[in-house]
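## retry 2 of 3
previous attempt timed out at serialization; input unchanged, resubmitting
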Amino acid sequence: MTNSIECPECGSAKEVPSDSQQGQLMSCACCGTLLELLSLSPLSVAKAPQIEEDFGE
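## retry succeeded, writing output
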């Protein structure tokens, strides 16, 4: 069983497998945006936070 979500960046549909876990990262096949699965019920995704270099600070 799969469910679909909408990419918040480009609006395309993305299939989410039923064995997905909260916090899982996935990328949109259309625009390449990295997405984070925020919630399983209801399904909710958002752009994954960008990891910034701290250069040892």
